[in-house]
Design a protein that fits this description.
alpha+beta, 6-stranded antiparallel barrel, conserved putative lor/sdh protein from methanococcus maripaludis s2 fold
Length: 509
């Protein structure tokens, strides 16, 4: 009876030894092959706040479930934000930039090349128009075969007019002249002029003493007969219009410029005019006037250009293309392809150190020659993404990063402290008057609209050094000129940055 019991004990002990041996061998194998890995250490980076990727603007001071979505809050680490807690953009491995097709460009100052082109139509010069009228009533005895649309020279005959009342007046003048009374003779001569008799006819009467009752009506200038109301045998009254003639020595080009681009027009600005009738040829001219009334149906302004037409090749009604010369105003320029237009704002992707990219809102101006004028949001020398920016923008959107807005002075903005799990409280409905923002700079240009200053950084609103135009009361600029170094204070009302105080460095102003 004891033997079976001993056998069971030995079998149990042997099985235990086998299990221990297998376990020890497995552990030894893992140690020798390096498969044993210590538990992953906890992320030691500092958590700035937690946020919901679908509502990235709302920050929370502890983890938990999002009050907006059925998901857990995501931490934002210190390495992913600047000292103020603002996102510093999305990071892309530099080795992947080439495969993504990223291409960078530099924001730089320059002059925007000419690019404004508008359509126009050749028109008559409305300052070169002659109206031919009958100076006395009579009958048309002869016409010279003219018709509307004919081009005639100055002095060309139009019709012969018989004036019966001239006969009695001329006979009376000859009788008075024979009396030798100078005063009566002068009065009779004056009566002939008042009846519409030209000086040449009166001179002929003095010369040969023969009365003349027929006068030939001639064209006072050369041009196009646009209207002709004289026919053989008709009766005309004093002052009746017989013909209308438009001169052709100069013509007008009326160009329709979109209202949004009308700020680029200036009287005296040079233009190049090309006509469909003469391909490859360009006629130079200048803007004579920008008409003060916009066309309501097309929302365009009319620019009037006067061109010489000595050879008569420019005919009213011809279609023309007008290219306006660029103004010499300096501007901050960026490639147009780098600007992402969302419909409500314009955004560019700013390239920063360490392979990071930040979406920045900009205010754009004119556009020509593949370049866009940057009015606010960037500074000269900054690098932006010119190609592949949509991929970077999509990555930034997935990461929950916000677009850096245009710099606006807002003294009521939060100081950067963390919010609690509840949304931030709304600011007071009665804000205090903001203090002036101050910096130093150099006056680059003084215009009627304001003053252009190259100024240093404005840390209070995050502005880098840049050149921009400020609104200003002209009285503040008394005694200042281009090139002066100044210290100035400004604020930012809805109308735009406005200088409220300016002082010349080294002297009062």
């Amino acid at each position: 009876m004891t033997r079976p019991y001993s056998t069971k004990v030995l079998l149990g002990a042997g099985a235990a030894l086998v299990v221990l041996g297998v376990a020890a061998g497995y552990g030894l194998a893992r140690l020798t092959t390096g498969e044993v890995q210590s538990p992953a250490p906890a992320d030691r980076r500092k958590v700035l706040y937690w946020y919901d990727p679908m509502v990235p603007a709302q920050h929370f001071d502890k983890p938990g479930k999002s009050p907006f979505m059925d998901m857990q809050l995501v931490p934002k680490y210190a390495g992913e934000a600047d000292a103020a807690g603002a996102p510093t953009g999305v990071r892309i491995d530099p080795s992947a930039t080439q495969s993504l097709g990223l291409r960078l460009a530099t924001v730089q100052e320059g002059v925007l090349s000419g690019g404004l082109t508008a359509t126009g139509v050749v028109d008559f010069n409305q300052r070169d128009v002659a109206i031919v009228q009958a100076r006395s009533g009579g009958f048309v005895q002869r016409v010279y075969g003219r018709a509307p649309g004919d081009v005639i020279a100055a002095g060309a005959p139009l019709a012969d007019l018989l004036v019966p009342e001239w006969a009695g007046a001329q006979a009376e003048y000859l009788a008075v002249r024979r009396t030798g009374d100078a005063s009566l003779t002068a009065a009779a001569r004056q009566r002939l002029h008042l009846l519409g008799m030209p000086d040449s006819l009166v001179a002929g009467l003095d010369r040969d003493g023969r009365a003349r009752t027929t006068i030939t009506i001639t064209a006072p200038l050369g041009g196009l007969v646009s209207k002709l109301d004289v026919r053989f045998g008709m009766t005309v009254a004093m002052g009746q219009t017989l013909a209308e003639i438009n001169g052709l020595s100069k013509v007008w080009i009326t160009a329709a410029v979109p209202e949004a681009q009308a700020s680029q027009l200036r009287p005296g600005q040079g233009v190049g005019v090309s006509l469909a009738a003469y391909p490859g040829e360009t006629v130079r001219g200048t803007i004579q006037a920008v008409l003060p009334q916009a066309q309501g149906d097309s929302r365009t302004l009319q620019a009037r250009i006067e061109l010489p037409n000595r050879d008569g090749r420019l005919k009213p009604g011809m279609f023309a293309t007008v290219s306006f010369d660029a103004t010499s105003r300096p501007a901050l320029l960026a490639p147009s392809e780098a600007v992402i237009r969302t419909g409500t704002r314009a955004v560019v992707m700013l390239a920063m150190d360490g392979g990071r990219y930040q979406a920045v809102e900009v205010r754009t101006g004119r556009e020509a020659g593949g370049q866009t004028e940057i009015l606010a949001g960037l500074a000269a020398g900054q690098r932006i993404v010119a190609s592949g920016q949509f991929l970077v923008d999509s990555e930034a959107s997935l990461a929950g990063l916000q677009v850096r807005p245009l710099p606006v002075a807002n003294p009521l903005a939060p100081s950067g402290g963390m919010s609690t799990a509840k949304p931030m409280a709304a600011p007071s409905l009665q804000p205090a008057k903001p203090a002036l923002l101050e910096t130093t700079g150099r006056i680059e240009q003084v215009t009627q609209d304001g003053v252009t200053l190259s100024h240093g950084p404005v840390p209070a609103i995050g502005w880098p050094p840049m050149t921009m135009t400020f609104r200003v009361d002209p009285a503040l600029l008394k005694g200042l000129k281009t090139g002066d170094q100044v210290r100035f204070g400004f604020d930012q009302p809805p109308a735009g940055p406005t200088v409220r105080r300016i002082t010349k460095i080294g002297g009062g102003a």
